[in-house]
User: What shape does this take?
Amino acid sequence: MSRAVRIHQLGGPEVLSWDEVDIPAPGVGQVALRQTAVGLNFIDVYQRSGLYPLGELPQVLGMEAAGVVESVGEGVDGFAPGDRVAYAMVLGAYAEHRLVDAEKLLKLPDSVSDESAAAVLLQGMTARYLLKGSFPVKSGDTILLMAAAGGVGLILSQWARDLGATVIGCVGSEEKAELARRNGCAHTINYREENVAARVHELTDGEGVAVSYDSVGAATLEASLDSLRPTGTLVSFGNASGPITNLNLGLLAQKGSLYVQRPTLATYIRTRELLQACADDLFDVLGSGLVHAHIGQRYRLEQAADAHRDLEARRTTGSTILVP
Ligand code: NDP
Assistant: This one.
């Protein structure tokens, strides 16, 4: 018998339930894990609330964790008991033990701890595809980043600075502004108090930015579009303040022939080759110290509801770990 955080109905943090669950022996192509660190991500909130479809209930929540291989099923090559591994974008992570398809598992290099992997695998692979896939950032680009002191934000800003970009980060408090500046942002804007587009134009001599990486969604759509240079790109990759449901394409013409992408990590890691290449690139920048994991808070796994409350109330910084 093992424990996991499940939901039996959609709703607020109170629907998270610390349940006993059965873990069967691994089937063909599966690996049995003892998990050592679980990552908290905003997608967990969207799935808990019903914004993103979850399928049948009850369901163990969570999309990312690190751990140790306990046993492997038939047909599994390349993994053996004792291996340190991690995964992202595989539902069912809020658990002490679980089964995962070997195809989704990544071996961890010695330079990346279990906690770092669980903290930044999903957010770091996201930063990687945003910077290298969605809008390939070049040295000399000035870029805008919403929620710059969050999980994705702190990784993306460190990595973008290393690519030679000037990062303007939007944050919700002075404490978060300082953290963002220590992690790659050349400038910060408190978007609860300041006019974002006006400040961006001041900072870019009236030109605007090449790209806005915007995970806040509805509340910052206009600020993002108004901050772009002519033919600039909005990469809208999240909905922390609510989804964008009414974008009039004519606005993109009026505001300077703009581009918009609404990407998801799942597309960028859809094959084993893409997943491994994305993770290897992330492990390289973690291993060399160019990017470091900032674990802002830790909770016991059974206290996942408190972690959800803090994430939704904008009380967290960087990445968050749930400890089984
Ligand atoms: P964060 O750690 O960034 O937490 C969210 C942050 O968003 C908050 O700390 C807060 O920072 C800011 N925010 C602004 N408005 C709100 C609001 N109304 N409610 C809550 N938060 C708000 O989370 P993650 O790093 O896990 O994820 C960041 C975003 O990226 C999420 O929107 C997530 O869905 C998205 N994402 C998308 C992926 C994709 O492939 N499309 C993959 C991974 C993440 P502040 O106080 O500074 O405003």
Residues 41-43, 122-123, 126, 147, 149-153, 171-172, 176, 215-216, 219, 237-241, 263-265, 311-312, 314, 316 surround NDP (CB under 6 Å). The chain has a mean pLDDT of 98. The longest strand covers residues 30-40.
